[in-house]
Amino acid sequence: MTEKDKKRTGAKTKIKPHDKLRNILEEYGFQEGTDFVEEHRFHPVRRWRFDFAFLKYKVALEVEGGVFIGGRHTRPIGFSKDCEKYNHALLAGWRVLRFTPDMINKGEAIVQTLQLLEKDDVFCTVEDKIWQSVQAD
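^ thats the sequence. predicted structure below, dont judge the formating
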């Protein structure tokens, strides 16, 4: 079904979890390129990338898709490779928050991201950041 057909029939376009998290970050005032980057390669040799990275604070966000359908992240080889990646990230000083699509949809991802960044004094409090977002509407 093309985008034109979707508009004509009223079908909704499903937003990918990665895109939804980016949109939420931007709704909360984070700017891509300034506050965070996407697809950041954090290892000097391996081609590992973070979905989102707050470089200044060495905080990374990972969207773990396919959780309930036997996707790459839940199969034995994919799970093992993810363990290796996240362990190397930790050894390099990164803190990684991992989110399922459901966590993004329920708002847990943004709350936990704000809580972690709050510890680095990025914001006064999580409540202040949420209040700023509400006032902007």
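The mean pLDDT is 82.
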